[in-house]
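Hi L., both proteins are below.
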Amino acid sequence: MPVVVSGIKELQRSMKQIEPQLNIGMRQAIKDVMIPVRDKARGFLPANNEVLSGWNKALDESYNPSKYRAFPKYDQTVARKGIVYREGKNKKNDKGFSAVFYVANTSAPGAIYETAGRKSPSGSKDSRSLNPHAGQQFIDSANRTGQLVNARTVGLRGRPSRMQTGRVVYRAWQEDKEKMIPLVRKIVQSVAEDFNSRQKSEAVSAIKGLMKTVPTTKGTL
């Protein structure tokens, strides 16, 4: 679900060296556009009393972390704080692409709610729960508060992937992407044109200044 802008990394690299203020301005403008997506995503997280009974309960005192890894407890406050806006290249996906500006769901409970049922709509067959229907019940509970939404951009090449579906960040992006994509591209294009214009202007000034210092010889042969 990316905004694909070719050359943005190269543009940033050049601006950092020559026009750092332009780079700062572009980063702030993109952040102003992306923060509403982050805030909308936070609003899609269910309240503590809306998730499956038991998911938001504290761990039993007998829990021994050396024996197994406990299923992370859900807490809406923690999950909301875990939805963040970030800058800088993130981890490359299986296609070799990485994001420069992005909203991410970073908490364990937030990520679980985001993607529950994405891989196995009926629950994992490898579950070790004493309840054979635990996975399905968990997914059904998540679906009652938010359905999985496919945020894939129409027209993208390649086979559709379930990795582009989710209930929180993906849903927020799907709802706002028709507005967001043109805005981000416009910001980058405007800054790139400004940067190129400044460089051309400085180059012309430098050439004119150089010409003034080159001695000339008059005479005839």
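That was the first. Here is the second:
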Amino acid sequence: MAKRLPVKAKTGAVTPLASIIEKARAYGEAAKAPNTRRAYASDWGHFAAWCREHGLAPMPASHGTVAAYLTAYAETLKVSTLGRRLAAIRAAHLYAGKTLDLTGQAFRDVWAGIRRAHGTRPVRKRALVTADLRRVIAALPDNLLGKRDRALLLIGYASALRRSELATLVIGDCPGHRLTFTDNGLLIELGRSKSDQEGYGVITGVPFGSRVQTCPVRALRAWLEAAGITSGPIFRGVSRHGHIGGAAITGHGIALAVKQAVYRAALADGHDEAAASVIASTVGGHSLRAGFVTAADAAGAPISKIMEQARHARFETTRGYIREADAFRDNAASYLGL
């Protein structure tokens, strides 16, 4: 029998094989984002519990078991949720080295039938374009919370950042997506993100605005000076008494800030509270990013530059944001003389 040689690190020290295997497992887990891993773990746990409840084997599962599971929840869960659970079941079998054959026509017909019967068009939050943003900004209060939200809305809009990226913006030498002031505006150094899972990093810019009232650079400087923030998270919680927290605002907090700002603007436009609540429910944190793509396209910005700022790898993704606006642009029905 051949003698197994120890694996040596660069320093010459012997690295135990068990340690290498553990590191390999950790690297394998790191291939997927933490949110994806948590979702998959939760989905697999749900499937395994359902199988045990019905006396079925979750691993390896038969195509009939998986089809029965999807059917059991077809009328109570969204098709997108079922699709994610199916992906989690596949992934669990793959990592366990078990075979899960779902290529048969019987399973494919069941899954296709569920998608056809219960599939719905994804509900997208309304895009906030420049005209909307001007009204929203004008209705913000002249206090610390108003200054924070003004900077948050304008930076989020002009940078086309995802809300998770916007929430983790920092200034100074600390972990996060670093932002620095320059003579031309703002530079944002994005580390690991949804479109950059390997963490190579992307630099994006935010130029000065042409109007003082809606300039993202001036708004951010005003917020930082008023809040006394010189390093650490840029966007933080602000209490009703004006107390500024030390931790970064969450992505959910950004969505709430957008909704509250739109609600306030709706009231200023003359809507009652009920109507203002309905209007606010149509927007969220993604409304800023969607608004950037929509407004930039309508203003004639090159698609390549829009994709670059939004960091879209595929044209179809960008096209999805501007399809509604394109429905009326140079529409063939406008040539009918009606």
